[in-house]
Amino acid sequence: MLQLEGVGKDFPVPGAAALTILENVSLDVPQSTSLSIVGRSGSGKSTLLSLLAGLERPTRGRILIHGTDITSLSENALSDFRARNVGIVFQNFQLLPHFTALGNVMLAAELAGIDSPREAAAAALSEVGLAARTDHSPVRLSGGEQQRVAIARALVGTPRLLLCDEPTGNLDPDNAEHVFELLMSLRAKRGTGLVLITHDAQLAARCEVRVHVERGRVSHVDDTSPEKRGTPS
Amino acid sequence: MTPSSPPLSARRSASLALRLIARELISQRVRLVFYAACLALGVAAIAAVSGFSAQVQETVRRNSRLLLGGDVEIQDVRLLPSTLVEAARARPETRGLALIDEVVAMARTPEGTPRLVSVHAVSGDFPSTKGAHITTPANVLDSPENLRSQTAEQAGGMGGVVVDADLARSWNVSVGGSIEISGTPFRVVGLLVDELSRDFTSLALGPRLYVHRDDALKANLVGNTSRFRERLLLTLAPGAVPQDTVDALQKAALAQGLRSPRISHHETNAGTSTRPLRNLAFFLAQVALSTLVLTGLGAASGLGEYLRTRLPDIAIYRALGARPWLPTAVLLGVVAAVAATGVVSGLVLGEALRVVVLVPLVGGLLPLSLATDVVGAVAALDIAAATFGTLVLLCVPLLLRLQKTSPADVLRGAREPASGGVSGRIAAWLAGGIALAVLAALFVRHAPNPKAGLLLFAATVALFLVFRAFARALVSFFARNETRLPPALRLSLAEISARKETAVLSMALAGLSLFLTCLVQFVKDDLLTPLGETSARGKPNLYLVDVQPSQREGVVDALKARNGGADVYASPMVRARLAAVNGKETEGRVTLGARPLGEPDPEEETRRAREREQNLTYRFTLGEGERVVERLDEPSVPTLDAQGRETLWPADATPRAEVSVEKAFAKRAGLALGDTLAFDVQGVRVEAKVTSLRSVSWQNWRPNFFLVAHPSLLEGAPQMNLVATHISTSEAREDVQKTLAQSFPNVSVLDAAAIVRRVADLSTGVAEATRFLASLLLGASLLVLAAGVVATRASRMRHYAILRSLGARDKLLSQSLILEFLWLGGVSGFAGVVAAAVLSRVFASEFLEVDASLSLAPGALLFFGAVGVNIVVGWLSCASVLRRKPAEVLREGS
User: Fold this and answer.
1) Distances (CA, A) of B727 to A72, B209, B463, B739, B760
2) pLDDT at res. B241
3) Distance from A81 to chain B by nearest Cα, in Å?
4) Interchain CB distance below 8 Å, A83 and B320
5) CA–CA dist B100, B211 (Å, integer)
6) Contacts with B437 (C-beta within 8 Å, 6 or more apart), sequence order
């Protein structure tokens, strides 16, 4: 599913040496695995997720997703790849405020090239339990509901990889549990690989593989899958 | 492995982009409508003015031949030589020749009040165009012989006259009755109801009368009065090119040594005659363009702010897999849609404003009915296209920066677009440079000449920058001192600082609109106030021209007997032409009319000042309000009169070939101290050296002259007298005119009050038109204000909710809101009124040379009105924000 080979990311600092956020990260994650990335704030987790989403390019190394080296793709090709293969769920939902719930999900379906985007979007919303709220704008939805719309949007294009950046970080514990359950069940239903950024140890423990990131490096990997499929750098 | 499905085809991508554009337009319609409306106002202003200009030009073009009364005209202020008339008759393309002499004279009935009239003495093939005169009986002016034949049968020797119908009605005279013109009786053979071939001036001195030229000669009307013009109108064969005839006749005139006749064809003539109206249109166009520039800036600024708020959306689009160009294309489409909506709406609105506002306000300056089949908006299409293109172009650099911004940064919380680097800065400079160049080109295209256009463009930009700098300085100053301010004031300024750019723009627009409106009002008042003060005894309001030397004493005595002791001013007047300056012959009006219309003549003012018929006087003394500012040789002993006042020359018998020139006229005509001027006084050449320059206070209304000669130079020359005095009431002035008409029928009387009324009407129309345009600017500033408020509703709601949670009362929030809009409209509006007052003072003293005191009442009214409207608009835009419950707002934001 996911291969990282010596990935590093530096950020330029005006008037000073570049800041290294990630250094020599290597991972090999098989198909349909659920993987969590844990670490303290500032350890480089979100940066790693951005690299996996193709929203940023690594300074060093390669990233292969389902065999495609995304680091060698052009910007257009990378966008196309992301539209069809990657779904992202953000901590603060990142819904378009002037679109309805249906509009938000439909946009992702359109970008993914789905032939009947409206129907697909309606179905996705129904799957997350929001069939009755399709015409509501995000401002009229609760936090949990907004995150469920975000999940529907991430999954409507049937991606093979789902990236979640602290998906329950802005939710109360009950909502967080519901949303996480939903996430895991939908992902399992589709066989979608999952990469989850979280600082919540309990949520992290529910993934098959846990990657610990410390000061930009992978400190250790816990593989609790029966087959111990994950391998550290 | 490869992606599960192929990328979107170009067609599907385009279709998606269009759908997203539509969705964005619908979801953001409220704020986008404001920007489109702002732009529409500016486009409407220029569309209305351009359309009006085009309408006037088309009307004149269609009627130019009719207006002139022929194809080619030769005119002079003296009798045309027969050799030139024969040369015109001999031209192979000439099909008809009509001779018309125009004089100003006094006409009366035995019972009626004498009136100053414009007498047209006609002969030959007059009129060139049948149907140009509407008369009763219908055919009386179809041939000059109609005037004679009727007299031969009916009048017992009296010449026939066709009288202006309104004048006849006021005199209670009808066909068959009789009137006197300069003491000579004429039989009324017809009434003039309307005509098309009129001068393009609303300041014609009196109604028209038509007589046969032979009868006018018999009555000694022709060639002997101060206001005389002879016109020879040629009708050419179909297909003949009028310009060729003009060129040939000019050569013939020069070959005959003639320099004074002016030769032109109907198109040139129409252009020259409509110069005042065209200059008015140019002026209005410049004001309208300034309005367009500023409203365009308002729209561009608003759109820029809108695009910045789309940054998070762009990041989300990219995170979902949209190609980099897609969000940019969507936003570009939105910008283009807003620009197109604004431009099209503006064209439609402009057409309506032209018909409903401009034509009624200033259309009356043209004595023709304006052509109604002209679609004015077509004249503004170039401006509309330029506006659309410029607005879109101005947004491109920001769009490129938005596209370059890393979506990851935005998703992490960045709220500002990437700087764009060197290429971004180059793109911004290029876009700005092109926009400025396009705007400058528009100003030049709609100006009388390129220099004026560039000057006005620079002035508009400079004014805007000044107001903008002032507004920014104010905002910065209060931001630095905010902790010292009371809470309501502090809150109001915090809101302004939160959206500094929009606030500064709104303030600049408000200031500039008030500046323009007040400037026009103050200048108009400066011009009219001294004109209106005709009641002062020291200011003459009755002027008598064509007073012969032998009549002078009698006329003065007649006035003194009736003017209640006011002063009577009498000056000899000698008509002459300035034949040469320092030995170089002036070109003469023969070539003056040769320049093609529209071709700029950098020396036109000088040539016109030199070529006009000059009125000279002669005396030793200086008049009231007149003083010598410079002398060629300072006399060893000051020249003083018996009362100790400075004089031009010592009152002795020494002959001096010297002349004193008024300084402003000297500047216009390019004359200087020491220049030797040669005058042609009725065929006799007289030379004089310029030995002094004078300044004259024209606002005292006393007769004065640009050129004052030493008495020894002109005492024996053919001359008339100009006499002026003050007579308090209109009834007394009428009585004087009746008396003078009986005793001195050749003397023409001008009542200044009537002229002042007409000038006032003209200037009122112009001022109203300019105020109308400035009001569009004010409207645009209110739109920018409202758009800014709408854009910041969410943040304002949050701020108020937080303040309420901290214990702030409604009263404090309301006060801060009112103060905020008071700042936005009031401060720069006040600066605008003050700037207008200062500039109008400078203009009045330097250019109008008047000392009228400034009445600030109109400015104060405008200021308080504009501020009030500002506050109302702002309040209405924010009213719902104040009503939101803080708990709801805070919950939404969490």
Assistant:
1) 98, 28, 46, 14, 21
2) 92
3) 6
4) yes
5) 10
6) none
Q: What residues in chain B have per-residue pLDDT under 50?
A: 1-4, 151, 199-203, 592-600, 894
In B155-302 the beta strands, taken as DSSP E runs, fall at 159-164, 178-181, 184-195, 208-212, 228-236, 262-265
Q: Quote the pTM value.
A: 0.73
Q: ipTM beyond 0.95? A: no
Reduced DSSP (H G I as helix, E B as strand, rest coil) percent helix, strand, coil of chain B, to 5: 60, 15, 25
Calpha distance B259→B81 (Å, rounded): 12
What are the beta bridge partners of residue B574?
B616
Rounded Cα distance, B160 and B154, in Å: 10
- State which H helix or E strand residue B780 sits in: helix B752-791
* CA separation for the pair B867, B872 (Å, rounded): 9
Residues from chain B contacting residue A99 (CB–CB below 8 Å): 23, 27
Tokens encoding A151: 């999940």
> B729: buried, middle or exposed (CB in 10 Å: 19+, 13-18, 0-12)?
exposed
Which candidate, A137, A54, A126, A66, places its Cα nearest to that of A96?
A137
Q: Which chain A positions have a beta carbon within 8 Å of B24's beta carbon? A: 98
Q: Are the Cβ atoms of B411 and A55 closer than 8 angstroms?
A: yes
Model confidence at A44: pLDDT above 70: yes
Alpha carbons A222 and A217: distance in angstroms, whole number: 15
> Looking at the complex, does the CB of residue B12 fall below 8 Å from at least one CB of chain A?
yes
- Indicate the residue of A46, A53, A113 with minimum beta-carbon distance to B319: A53
Cross-chain residue pair A113–B12, CB shorter than 8 Å: yes
**To which residue do tokens 């309001």 refer?**
B541
Exposed / middle / buried, residue B684 (Cβ in 10 Å: 0-12, 13-18, 19+): exposed
CA–CA distance, B806 with B856 (Å, rounded to integer): 45
Task: Find out whether B852 and B531 touch, Cβ atoms under 8 Å.
Answer: no
Establish how many alpha carbons lie within 13 A of residue B637's alpha carbon, considering only the half-sphere containing its beta carbon.
4
